[in-house]
UniProtKB/TrEMBL annotation:
CDD domains: MATE_MurJ_like (cd13123). One of its GO terms (cellular component) is plasma membrane. This is Probable lipid II flippase MurJ. It comes from Entomospira entomophila. Belongs to the MurJ/MviN family. One of its GO terms (molecular function) is lipid-linked peptidoglycan transporter activity. The gene is murJ.
Amino acid sequence: MDGDSLTQRTKKRNLATLIVMGSTLVTRILGFLKFAVIAQYFGGSGVADVLNAVFTIPNNLRKLMAEGALTTAFIPSLSKHVVRSEREEAVRITRQVISVQYIVLIPFIIVSIVAASSLVQVFVDFNDPQKLELAAHLYRWFIPYLLLISVAAIIMAVLNTHERFLVSALSPLLFSIAVIAAIIFLAPTWGVYSMVIGVLLGGVGQVIIQYPLFHRLGYRIWPYFDFHHPEFHVVLKRYFPALLTSSIFVVNQQIAIFLATKLVDGSVSALSYAVVFFQLPFGIFSATVNTVFYPELAKYGQSKQYEAMGDSLKRGLHLLMIFLVPSAFLMILLSKEIIGVALMRGQFTVEATIMTATTLSAYSLGMFFIAAYNFIQRYFYAKGHFRIPLISALIACTIDVLLSLLLIRTPLGVAGLAYANSIAFFLAFMILMVLVMRERTMRIERDTYILMGKILFSILVGYGVYLGITHFIGNTWWLDGYGFMINVGLLILQGGIPALIILIMYILLEVDMIKDFIRRKRRR
């Protein structure tokens, strides 16, 4: 690849990254508001525990039949046809993949509705029979969402492969709006079932908002049951190891929920809410890098441009480092303030706030390592190496479960589950990095060390500003009952200004993508 084409590709990639990042920021903020509404109406109570635990079931299962295993196996084959301008083949393979979803998910959903009381006990273990009964009822209503989000994920994969990022990045927005509106307007009469209505309407919305562009590109969601196409067999060959890998993580997450149900009331909610706030920066930057870079890695992998793959991998890891390291640092510093301002009202108590904040801090320790691990996995998938991610996933989840069983018996309680997760993914990241370095397609060179130094220096300057502000306003203001708007202002003062200082330092130090963006704006 010559220098000019590489530069153009980098500029195009950076623009796509900014589009996806901005769109994802909006949807993540709405996602946060969604959980703030859930917390306000249902608090950190036992009912909220049931609601959060049951919704994680279809939410985790979609990683097997949607944006996890299936899209991972599907995107390289779709990319090959798109690169070669083989539109009919691309449409055919897409319809075949969607048909597999119909064949598997529709019977599964029917069985789940009929046998909900038995199946739900596989995923949760509440000691209270009333909680188990409520869990079974909610499970029956939540499980159809699995089909909606699975089809929406395939549509999203197609749009991303065609580099149409904006619509697919905005589709989760409708989901959050639907859930928020349903709870606000229906919770007084429908209770927890108001969220069911919002989830189902939101799932339909995610399909509807993407479908017009999907249709204009020539694709359809009607089933195509001729599975003799050779490329479909390639997808299946990739899918099964990817399915095993995703299954390991889904089981691991369900084990965490299962263990949390055995702890004190509010533990499941603390875990769920901590994940939501963790996902605010993590989801924006990790999802953006994966969305933009994975189709690119897949295209390079199909054409065996391994040097270009190494460049893309390195740039993706640099972006994750630039944004997630300071994000994690600020999350750890301000966890109590963030949770207190966002959730501590109505049924959400100070005790629930502290439990959630401690769990959030523990998750944040592993923020960069989890994102980097997920991204490197996709690098191996793009090369057709599915065994390496599978083995690393087994190692990570085994360590996670063993540490979880140990740490929940300590005073850490539910936060022990988050610490176990961070430690396990740090070790898994190190394993994958060693394997990448052995391939010699990517090297850690002087530019990476310089970038790390710039990030560290910027964080230290931001931390100095944080200490100065905290000296004047203290660090218990979120307990003093100033009111929501004043507390938001204080949080912006204590956290937003240090974040802005870090960004200014990035500009002054000419950090990678920030430098490219500034230069583009000046040329305009």
